[in-house]
Design brief:
The chain is an alpha+beta fold. The chain is about 50% helix and about 15% strand. The protein has 2 domains: about 160 residues, Serine Threonine Protein Phosphatase 5, Tetratricopeptide repeat (Alpha Horseshoe); about 180 residues, B-lactam Antibiotic, Isopenicillin N Synthase, Chain (Jelly Rolls), CATH 2.60.120.330. The strands form 2 sheets. Strands 1, 2, 3, 4, 6, 9 and 11 form a 7-stranded antiparallel beta sheet that branches. It has a 4-stranded antiparallel beta sheet with strand order 5-10-7-8, with no helix packed on it.
Length: about 425
């Protein structure tokens, strides 16, 4: 014990001396002192990062690489160590190693500004424009005010904003050209709301009244839940609740095809969903996903699929329609959140509802009643809970917002097609 305490005291004294030498401008002496620290403690994080930075400043990238590799091996949760390793790999023109180090940095802290900028910069150099714009946007969102940043980082954040702005401008111009023939086909129709929706999406105008996460359609009155009488087609679905529940129970008995409702990658920000990410406590059995029936799942529920076909399902290639059995495990709460777009509403058909379960959208709170469907706007903040000791199950599917005209729906479908064409991947951009 005395030997350990003496060693710690000696290392602490060397730390202080090395930092004092560095502040005095005696870089060589500081390097010698840090090297002595490593002789006493081979995994000393401050010594490894200091020697790595010193080697980097002097252009000795191989020595810097060795120091930073030792650092992250001994301290894998050190975000700054991974960032320094990424910069060193960049200097050595090792893109694969650079990417791996950036990925590790963001796994330790998904919101780290420098790591996000490094990822976006690498994607930009690789010519991956769509992904670079997305990550530059994320960096700009987490960045503090410019005046709070040091000059070098301030320039990087400015570049992130400018890159994203340029991308949005190009995106808007492309969609204007792509949609022009559709506008001419619908000449005389009132598409002002649709035009404004595109302007908002590509950053040409601001939105003020909606929390839609990705695609906002102006002029749709924010309505937490809608009168049941507006949806007479729900009568047939409600009347066959028993058959839908029976199909679900058969699927549940097979215990296959269920996936976590949320599947964020470990290097993506989880916000309030960290506890439920990749968790079976909130799971789903998808019947329709990204606009298409899910092979192997939909075939097991023919009656449910037949009934869903009678709903006004939204047509957004690569995104909608969607339908699933949503399972909420006992003692599980879904935190407040909002949906991606107000052009479609969400329908709940409760199937299995124990006591002490509830749902809130906006200021409206309600319980689920088996067989009684309701429709709500999920771009308004909502949450759900199951405080019981049993499973809660709801059939969830989306429908067109009833206040969209047929021409507007046609243009929204065309917009989804345009987004897919622009990105060369119909399912990559979620409306």
């Amino acid at each position: 014990m005395q030997k350990t305490q003496a060693l710690r005291a000696e290392v602490a004294a060397l730390h202080a001396a090395a930092m004092q030498a560095r502040q005095a401008g005696n870089d060589e002496r500081a390097g010698q002192l840090w090297a002595t620290v490593l002789e006493l403690d081979a995994n000393d994080g401050m010594a490894l990062i200091s020697l790595g930075k010193r080697a980097f400043r002097h252009g000795d990238l191989e020595r810097a690489l060795a120091a930073f590799q030792r650092l992250v091996a001994a301290h894998p949760g050190n975000t700054q160590g991974w960032i320094n390793l990424a910069l060193t790999r960049q200097g050595l023109r090792d893109e694969a190693g650079e990417q791996a180090a950036i990925d590790s940095a963001l796994r330790t802290d998904p919101s780290d500004l420098i790591a996000l900028i490094l990822r976006a910069n690498l994607l930009e150099r690789q010519g991956k424009r769509h992904k670079a714009a997305s990550v530059y946007g994320a960096a700009a969102n987490v960045a503090p005010p410019l005046e709070a940043l040091e000059p070098g980082l301030r320039d990087a954040v400015l570049h992130a904003r400018q890159y994203r702005d340029q991308y949005d401008g190009d995106f808007g111009s492309f969609l204007d050209r792509f949609l022009d023939t559709r506008y001419r086909d619908l000449a005389g129709e009132d598409l002002q709301r649709f035009r404004e929706s595109v302007d908002i999406m590509v950053g040409r105008k601001r939105r003020y009244d909606s929390q839609s996460m990705l695609y906002h359609y102006p002029g749709l009155v924010p309505t937490p839940s809608f009168p049941r009488a507006q949806f007479p087609w729900l009568d047939a679905i409600e009347a066959d609740t028993a058959a839908i529940r029976a199909e679900f129970l058969k699927v549940l008995e097979g215990d296959a095809g269920f996936t976590p409702y949320l599947t964020y990658a470990p290097d993506m920000p989880h916000q309030q969903f960290a506890e439920l990410n990749n968790s079976p406590r909130w799971s789903a059995f998808h019947l329709i996903a990204e606009g298409k029936p899910v092979s192997g799942n939909a075939q097991q529920c023919p009656e449910t699929m037949r009934l869903l076909a009678g709903a006004p399902q939204p047509n957004q290639p690569g995104r909608t329609p969607c339908a699933m059995f949503s399972l909420l495990a006992p003692k599980t709460r879904i935190p407040p959140h909002v949906g991606v777009s107000n052009v479609r509403l969400v329908t709940h058909l409760p199937l299995i509802v124990p006591e002490h379960c509830g749902f809130r959208v906006g200021n409206e709170q309600r319980g689920w009643v088996p067989g009684q469907a309701f429709v709500f706007d999920d771009t308004i903040e909502h949450e759900a809970w199951n405080d019981s000791d049993q499973l809660r199950v709801v059939l969830i599917f989306d429908i067109w917002h009833p206040h969209l005209s047929p021409p507007e729906r046609a243009m929204i479908t065309a917009l989804a097609e345009g987004i897919g064409r622009f990105r060369d991947n119909p399912g990559e951009f979620a409306l």
